[in-house]
Amino acid sequence: MGKRVAIVTANRAKGEEAKRILQGFGIEAEVVEMEKLEVQSEVLEEIALRAARAAFEVLKRPLVVDDSGLFVEALNGFPGPYSSYVFKKIGIRGILKLLEGEANRSAYFKTALAFVSRDVERVFVGVVRGRIAEEPRGSRGFGFDPIFVPEGEDRTFAEMESWEKDRISHRARAYEAFAKFF
Ligand code: IMP
Fold it and tell me: Are 12 and 33 spatial neighbours (Cβ–Cβ below 8 Å)?
């Protein structure tokens, strides 16, 4: 029998996406919907690890928690760990406005994935580099996908098929690193 892990998330859709990714690596995962402890920190690794520890206190079995953000170079890494809040408050239009007239469009998405079990704690990281488009394009995906163009592509994440995004995304890379360890 293979090893099992729980994917703890407040967002079932994201959990199911992570489950599919892990299944691709032969890992059986179960999605557990639970409010995530959100600590105030500028470090994704710390946010994910603290949330995973808190979830372990409740569930007491091997689990992962992930946390992601969009880091824009010309904005010194903003919105980074505050991406979901910033997305809710000023959205894609707000980010584009902050970058008006800015030649440096470099940005990256990063995921920190924390694994906690009874005797092991590990954090895995996945990054995808790219740039912020001049205007939103595409209707797939979520969040900042319509303005993020991954390196080596002309299309935004929102213009790509979900399987194409899943091959190169920050989240997929973090889960891949975890899968190799697990
Ligand atoms: P979470 O930690 O995965 O919930 O991500 C936090 C926020 O970062 C989300 O609410 C989105 O605004 C943004 N974000 C994270 N991953 C992605 C992605 O793959 N595409 C677009 N936006 C993302």
Answer: yes
Which three-class secondary structure state does DSSP give residue 128? strand
Distance from first CA to last CA of the chain, Å, rounded?
Answer: 14
Name residue 33's beta-bridge partners: 9
pLDDT digits 0-9 by tens, 42-90: 999 999 999 999 999 999 999 999 999 999 999 999 999 999 999 999 9
Whether the Cβ atoms of residue 149 and residue 156 lie closer than 8 Å to each other: yes
pLDDT score for 62: 98
Q: What CATH architecture is 4-181?
A: Alpha-Beta Complex (3.90)
- 67 in active site: yes
182 lines ligand 1 (CB under 6 A): no
The percentage of the chain sitting over the pLDDT mark of 70, rounded to a whole number, equals 99
Does ligand 1 lie within 6 Å of residue 17's CB atom?
no
Candidates 15, 2, 119, 20; CA nearest to 64 is 15
**C-beta of 9 in contact with ligand 1 (< 6 A):** no
Helix (H) or strand (E) segment spanning residue 12:
helix 12-24
| Structure tokens, 18 | 């992570």
pLDDT at residue 2 in the model: 61
Confidence (pLDDT) at 166? 86
Q: Which of 7, 84, 162 to mutate to test the pocket of ligand 1 (most atoms within 8 A of CB)?
A: 84
